[in-house]
Amino acid sequence: VHGSLNFEKIISRAKMCDEINAAIKNKREEFRVEIRRRQMDDLLIQRRIKTGHNELGDYEHIPKDKRLILLEDNIKELKIAMKGTEIDIPSVTRFLRNVRKMVAIPEDSPTNILFSYGMASILLQFLSISYINEEELQFEASWILANMMSSNNPKYFEEIINIGAPQALLQLLSLTPSLNVAKNVMWTLANIAGESIKLRDVLLKLGAFDIVEGIIKKATTVSEEFCRTIVWLLSTLSRGRPAPPDEQILRVFPIFAHIILRNEDEKMILEAIWALSSIAEMGNRIKEEFFRFELIPKIMALTRSENLTITFAALRVLGNLTNSIDEFTQVLLQQGLLDSMQHLLLSERPLMRKEVCWCMSNVLAGTPAQIDMVLRHSISDILFTAVQSDEEDIRVEVLIAFGNACLRGETAQVRELVHKGLLEAIFQQLDEDSSPRLLLAALDTLESVVTRGFELSIGGKSNAVIDMMESSNFSQILEKLQMHREPSVYSRTYDIIEKHFPNTQMNF
């Protein structure tokens, strides 16, 4: 288990996986939309470089309206200093420093004024190779530009692209400017990459990974903050869907793996684990790297981190890895996945519990042996409690998980689930006042159980599940749902009745 995986053998077996297993895991995408939207908000957020209060001087205490006037005056003076055959470098640097301090006040950063005065083009001019020896000048210019690109306004990013900022910044970075300038430039690039997949791909096509690798190789003694910025940039370049090409991810994966395994800096671990959570959504070739680098034990340990953001990202890695072939899931189970999931399923945070249940639905879409591991573990009892009393989103996930088990499990396993009260739990959700999403999940799971009903009866002469439903008056609940106000609900109910109750007296 703990050795290396024979990837070619796994892939050949994966190609022979039956269509049911693929369908079960593919349908999970519909229920991940909300989580993934939140993920993009969390992961692709632009950041500002903050200036210390001591550096802000009097600007922080000047009223906003007066500060904006001062900002415009400094920009005008800056443009005057740029006129003539030779630029007044000391004056330009001084005006840029003033602008930087005013822009660095996060409460009311006047990004719109900077763009309206054409500051993006001016800053790029100073960030060209012509000024590479003017470290102080480029430091101030790169700091301002990084904060300008912390905006969420798409039109600003469109302007930055139109004036060739990615090309100019990557060219400067490739020439290894001072470390302080390089850090600010990478910060700017990370903000650009974090805005959208389109902009991320622009940077990738321009060779961003190559240039950052060059920085890493050349840098000898660097600050902790510099390292964090590199990791953040690599992280933003590695995230999102569609994913970057496999060959590019394979090049940076060892960096993230090293941080997870060897680094103790919490901020770098956070960036690395967020990147890995996105990478874990990629194909099986990339997912195998998690096992090849023996990352699983450390990632499971991170699910118990005191930093809940790290915990959630580690959980997402594990969930994404279970959304693949059964061989990967088996390794995860044998390395303690269920213990980690049970711990998180007891979390006070609903989103955490929801993600755990999604992970468990992937596991229960696996092999009978994997389903048996879940049923023999105490986590199964917690799942039964959750489906009856937890928040609606979590009940939906647990219903789907049990539905997967009924489709993939052996007859004895389905019988065990029924004996534990699965039918009762399903019909508890089939209340007319439940949301359509919960009703549809319950109806889907019900059909998964009903489909196995003949296997559960003695001699297979009747459908044991239908018999149980009729003796418990559950069938009356289905009849009422045929009149539900939501078309998708009454249509799904009608389909189940027509398919599985052809000889009953139900009213259509």
Could you describe the 3D structure shown?
The protein is mainly alpha-helical. The chain is built from 33 helices and no strands. Helix 16 packs antiparallel against helix 17 (266-279). The longest helix is centred in the N-terminal third of the chain and has 18 residues, at 64-81. The radius of gyration is 28 Å and the shape is elongated. The two termini are 54 Å apart.
Give the amount of beta strand, in percent: under 5%
Number of DSSP helical runs: 33
Mean pLDDT value? 86
Overall structural class, as computed from helix and strand content, comes to: mainly alpha
* Shape type: elongated
Distance between the termini: 54 Å
Summarize the main sheet.
none
Output the radius of gyration: 28 Å
Total number of strands: 0
- Low-pLDDT residue spans: 1-22, 24-45
Features:
single chain; mainly alpha; disordered N terminus
In short:
With 508 residues, this protein is mainly alpha-helical. It has helices at 7-15, 19-26, 33-43, 53-56, 64-81, 89-103, 111-116, 119-126, 135-148, 154-162, 165-174, 179-195, 197-205, 208-218, 224-238, 246-262, 266-279, 284-292, 296-302, 308-322, 326-334, 337-345, 350-363, 368-376, 379-389, 392-408, 411-419, 422-429, 436-450, 453-456, 464-471, 474-481, 487-500.
Topology:
Elements: H1 7-15, H2 19-26, H3 33-43, H4 53-56, H5 64-81, H6 89-103, H7 111-116, H8 119-126, H9 135-148, H10 154-162, H11 165-174, H12 179-195, H13 197-205, H14 208-218, H15 224-238, H16 246-262, H17 266-279, H18 284-292, H19 296-302, H20 308-322, H21 326-334, H22 337-345, H23 350-363, H24 368-376, H25 379-389, H26 392-408, H27 411-419, H28 422-429, H29 436-450, H30 453-456, H31 464-471, H32 474-481, H33 487-500
Helix pairs in contact: 5-6, 6-9, 8-9, 9-12, 11-12, 12-13, 12-15, 15-17, 16-17, 16-18, 17-20, 19-20, 20-23, 22-23, 23-26, 25-26, 26-29, 28-29, 29-33
